[in-house]
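Archive transcription. Copying these from loose printouts into the bound notebook so they stop getting lost. Printout 1 of 2:
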Amino acid sequence: MKITTGFVQPGDVAVYLCPDNAGQPVPQLELRPGMKARGAVTWFYGRGEEAHVLIVGLGPEAKVNAERVREAAGNAARAVHKEGFATTVSVMLESFVRALSGALSEEEAVRAWTEGWLLGSYAFDKYKSRKEARGVERLHLVCAEAGEASYEQVLQQTAIRAEGAMFARDLCNEPPNVLHPESLVEIVRERFAERPVDVRVYGERELADLGMNGLLTVAQGSRYKPALIELTFCTDPSQPLLALVGKGITFDMGGMNVKSGRDISDARFDMGGACAVLGAMDMISRSELQANIVALVAVADNMPDAAAFVPSTVIAYPNGLSVQVGNTDAEGRLVLADALLHAGRLGAREVVDIATLTGNVGEALGLGVAGAWGDRKLVETLAGIGEHCGDRLWPMPLVDDYEELLRSDYADMNNIPPISYGGAIVAALFLRRFVADAMRWVHIDMANTVQAKAARGYYPAGATGYGARLLADFAAGRAEANRSAGSGEA
């Protein structure tokens, strides 16, 4: 699909963005109030050679921002694709931006609409005999700036962001008979082969040499070998090293504490943190960012084979801590501990780990906002980025008094607390034990945001790609802050 910008051009469909208090964007059409509500899409079908008109509601004008525009674009994309009769779609952005009186610039609207449209058009249908219709050949954004080259760079950058997020979605959506620890390693090698990224994979022997006993223990029940994937993007070695750490349990059967349920196919989403990190690195590696970043992805399956680890197993880590396994389904923290220790060995000064770690976080924050623990300033920075890019998170407390819930009778700590209350906080406290003193650290629990149960906004049903844009924007911000500090800029 080609995306262009410029003056009004004829198309099969004309899309109008309508906040609650908008007038009549199309004089010959009378809009009812409900048509302007957030999430509403309304068709007015043309006759003969007339273009069809799609009205997209945004809700109250005071709440219109880039995220609302992305959301509206996703809704519009699905509505257009569902009808299947459009080859050229014209979006009336210029009149919309003018009506907002400065709330959004035209460039911001172009960026947000393009990203929302691309992400909203996403469909994981590679295994369906009948593919979803995607007949739009051209998306034209009507802007005050004339000429197709006016926003060419913005469109290119936005396409890279969307492709990185969709890469994260693809990985997470793949079934476990296709994507498993060993195939993920090959996918990553292929994806980054032509990028300015150094790819190193630590296999079983290297994991043993480095004492990564969490990964080795969790993977005992799987026929697939575990790995730690290390991706290094270093275009400015003078900057302090930023580490992005992702949990990559490609299928979490729970180990010997086996999961149960009518349908547990979403256990493949337990690699959501790894997908976020890989999607972010996909974006970063296609940018001109001057940075020093390492991505660490801890990859394993958690299966209940006869060789699998069992409750009461004790794992010894190279920092001197021993961990009693109280429950094999709390495996994510066991493999993240290895990755965090490795980030310390590499000399990372800042580290963000992201994982589908606890169901408990969803009980606290619902399904739309992830939880974040750790360095307060970094958490606040991430929260601000999330509000802008749509990957929202909320600062959560590290309650030192809850450390007693990690107590074990015969090891230094247990991997699961004896009560269900505060489980997400206790999991963060567990991870903190493996963070080097010299590192500033943030932990993001995204278990509640990794998938959408039904299509909404620019999210289709299935994997959301949560975290990929968040981490890429965070890395870019930290690189710019480091550059400014190094040059003595204010």
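Printout 2 of 2:
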Amino acid sequence: MLQIDKKNCFVQLGTFLSQFSFDNSTKKEAVLHNDLFYDEFLTLIELSQSHNGWFTPEQVFFAVNSWAEALKEENLNQWLSHYDFSNVQPKTIGLILAGNIPLVGFHDFLSVLISGHKVVVKTSSNDQKLLPFLAKYLISVDDRMADFIHFTEGKLENFDAVIATGSNNTARYFEYYFKEKPSIIRKNRNSVAVLNGKESHQDLVRLGEDIFRYFGLGCRNVSKLFVPKDYDFQPFFQAIYEYKDVIFYEKYSNNYDYNKAVFLMSNFKLLDNEFLTLKEDSSYASPISSVFYEYYDTIEDIIAQLQNDADQIQCIVSTGLIPNSIPFGQTQKPQLWDYADNVDTLAFLISI
């Protein structure tokens, strides 16, 4: 099966996904196999929260929309044009996926298949339904895809290389267990925003998207702010008030109440707007419903610190204060060539 055939399957999948929206899903008769898949997928999205309490329909629709955009043919062509696949020797690649946000492992799944390999997937218990459904759709577009896709519920076996995502603790297990195999092992990372107090109201509203999308559960969610010593947090709180309804979601609210109580019992000084707490802290990983902040003296100081701590950071957002930073509001809309942990997955898959 040629790469162009696989690419066409993913383009068709993107077209299928483009029909679904939180505000207005619209069935299009021209989309392949809609009679078999449209209603079933809509039901799956609506029931996702029963499989994982964090996977509200709004969050799943957002993930689906993001992949619909990414799988446009022009995006796939731009991504693939930078690689030479002519010497790829097909192998079986094991994937151990995370389940913190909907379809978080789809990029690895896509990368393995589009590079010419077979994939054996062990899904997270927190996200067991969405990816197998999309795989079923791919196979319906071209039944030869069935030879390249396998899901397993048990021990991962019979693979030549592995891409595994987990916590820092599970990563140590992965590194030991897969030490004889070519591998990409992903650990905990967090994203940060660097502010200077000159951001517009709309910039800070967009920053709220980077903080609250997926309830802050993703490694691309901003969990820490770097601010100058005279920073006024009032404009920040005014801007993120648009996200106040997050507190009406029970799981988020429970985390807010619990983490706030823990902080207060420890006599930590907090800034609080009744749905988000800000705590001065040197760590990058803040709990759900809280964002840490740290003061800096000069931009040069913070650039040096972020370079030194690069292995802990997934994304940096700013208004251009930091080289190669991401604009506000874009952390959860990565391009196909925006690789997790800055590890080029396709280059790895071509090289093995």
